[in-house]
Amino acid sequence: MNNFHKIFVINSQKINLMKKILFICLTIIASALIVFPAGAQSQQPQAPPSSTAKIKWLDFEEAVALNKKKPKKMFIDMYTDWCGWCKKMDAATFINPVIVEYMNQNYYAVKFNAERKDTVAFNGKQYKNPNPAGTRSSHELAMELLSGRMSYPSFIFLDENLNKVTVVPGYRKAPEFESILHYIGEDAYKTQKWEEFSASFKTTAVE
């Protein structure tokens, strides 16, 4: 075998060896890509979960019973089944996490259908619907709590002794509603005018 042939054979062997090494390297890289395909995705930031907390709504009778054991202010959402703005309050303001948290901590929250058909006992008196078979017939307790001003939604605030503090009529967005809850909940209504309190209140609720 001449020198040229020897060199050719040696070079061929080196080339084959390099091909094998390159093949092995590519195989390892491909395997890594197959085993860990989601590695880059795991580094992407995830959106924070939405709040699932809800207002702990009670029946009027339940709230009265709880108040006897542990006195707390009562919030009453006076609504009707046909009231569009009542549904808007449920879908927007009442699910705001700031509203939910403060309401659950400071009030017994009550849903009261102003046209309910049954009889309700309160403060030693029986209240009923004078025309339960009729349409849009107001319940006697609803009429008393609203002083005959039957507009919906209306929000009634009772103190710890179940005396009426005030009635707030109409749809309210979360920031404004937050200030109202604090105004009553902190007893600020006893010492401050609403205009003064609302002007200085720093809301944390976002629409």
Task: Describe what this molecule looks like in 3D.
By secondary structure, this protein is α/β, with parallel strands linked by helices. It folds into two domains: 3-38; 57-200, 3-Layer(aba) Sandwich (Glutaredoxin), CATH 3.40.30. The protein is 42% helix and 16% strand. The protein contains seven helices and seven strands; from the N terminus they run H-E-H-E-H-H-E-E-E-H-E-E-H-H. The protein has helices at residues 3-35, 60-69, 84-91, 97-106, 140-145, 174-185, 194-200, and strands spanning 57-58, 73-79, 107-113, 120-122, 125-127, 154-158, 164-169. A five-stranded mixed β-sheet has the order 1-3-2-6-7. Strands 4-5 form a two-stranded antiparallel sheet. A hairpin with a 2-residue loop joins strand 4 (120-122) and strand 5. Helix 4 runs parallel beside helix 6. The longest helix is centred in the first third of the chain and has 33 residues, at 3-35. The protein is globular and about 95 Å long.
Which homologous superfamily in CATH is the superfamily of the largest domain? Glutaredoxin
How would a textbook summarize the main sheet? 5 strands, mixed
Based on secondary structure, the structural category is: alpha/beta
Assigned CATH architecture of the largest domain:
3-Layer(aba) Sandwich
CATH topology of the largest domain: Glutaredoxin
Task: Report strand %.
Answer: 15-25%
Number of helices: 7
Alpha-carbon Rg, integer = 35 Å
Low-confidence region ranges: 1-12, 29-50
Distance between the termini: 90 Å
CATH class of the largest domain: Alpha Beta
Number of domain modules:
2
Q: What do the pLDDT scores average to?
A: 84
Strand order of the largest sheet: 1-3-2-6-7
Please give the share of residues in helix.
40-55%
Count of beta strands: 7
Element string (H = helix, E = strand): HEHEHHEEEHEEHH
State the shape. globular
